[in-house]
Amino acid sequence: MTTAFDGQVQQIGDRLIVRVPEDVSSALPSRGQVAVEAQVNGRAWATVVEPDGRKGHWLAVDEQLQTALSLSDGDTVDVELEPTRAWPEPDLPEDFEAALTDASDLAEPWDSITPMARWEWVRWVSATRNPQTRERRIEVSVDKLRNGSRRPCCFDLSSCTDPELSKSGKLVDTVDQP
């Protein structure tokens, strides 16, 4: 099922996003992350829409897309989303990738989990602003993967866990920004 909508690019901090309208979001198969084939102004890529912590979703506008389409805050874009079961590989944060590389015995366990589960690990590691907490989550991740864990822990998959864009598990409103 492909859905299309006109979305507005919004800037939160240094980042650009497009909020998914309520009717489109409610038609997605999960209140958490959803793998999609996306198009913004005709530019296609595989990505994941993120939960906003309010039963909705948002789409990240990464630097490559921002540059390619010359997008900025307030621009209107044509968006198409088609949910898919084929999850793209997540971009691993450098510190997490280094820890996995250093733990060479984890290559097989890491490769054996689904890309969806790898997204969960990345979300959990990245869901904090505190450097000590992040470091501890990486250590715990290595230990859990060594012990056969397929998922990081029991956190609310429908909350917004990007610490640059969220407060208390909810995507911040642009009106709440300083």
Automatic annotation (TrEMBL):
Q: Which domain of life is it from?
A: Bacteria
Kindly provide the name given to this protein in its UniProt entry: YdeI/OmpD-associated family protein
SUPFAM superfamilies, alphabetized: AF2212/PG0164-like
InterPro entries according to UniProt:
AF2212/PG0164-like_sf, DUF1905
A Pfam family recorded for this sequence = DUF1905
